Amino acid sequence: MNEGVQKNTLYVGGLAEEVNEGILHAAFIPFGDIKDVKTPLDQATQKHRSFGFVTFLEREDAAAAMDNMDGAELYGRVLTVNYALPERIKGGEQGWAAQPIWADADTWFERQQQEQEMQRLQAEQRAAMQEAEELHRKKVAEERDGEKDEDGDIKDDPMAKAEAEVLKQNAGA
């Protein structure tokens, strides 16, 4: 469950409307050096959405800020402070991703090319197997034809004639 948790970025919920990034920065600076402060805006109202993110340079500073500020009051509102989860954007192969859907395009094309190459190789292998089977069938057929030719040579070989007659007599007896 803690996979992907950003240990130096804090989620700060429950912000009053009056709180801006400057006030949020001032409230958290006593705990250590701050790298970034963000309060995402509501597109319709252009006001923050009652939460923000504070990113510290050091994990220890973020931990101290979370321990001290979770449940604290700022502008009459009780704050909720937790480690932030990575930003998730709708899209990607699993439905949600930490990157936009078009970021998957390169890997998707690579997979398509690999699948096409695999299909081509399998088709070549099937064709080679069929060719090998056909050659084997021809060789076996030629060997059978060669055996028949050898039986036809009995007329010329007196010893083979005698053997054949003895075999016929034994089979008839």
TrEMBL record:
Sequence ranges of Low complexity compositional bias: 119-130
Write down the PANTHER family for this protein, in alphabetical order. Answer: ATPASE E1 (PTHR48037), RRM DOMAIN-CONTAINING PROTEIN (PTHR48037:SF1)
Region Disordered, as annotated, extends over 113-173
Extent of Basic and acidic residues compositional bias: 133-147, 155-166
What SUPFAM superfamilies has UniProt attached to this entry?
A: RNA-binding domain, RBD
Which CDD domains would you find in this protein's record? RRM_PPIE
Q: Which Pfam families match?
A: RRM_1 (PF00076)
RRM domain span: 8-86
Protein's name according to its UniProt entry = RRM domain-containing protein
Q: Per UniProt, which keywords does this protein have?
A: RNA-binding
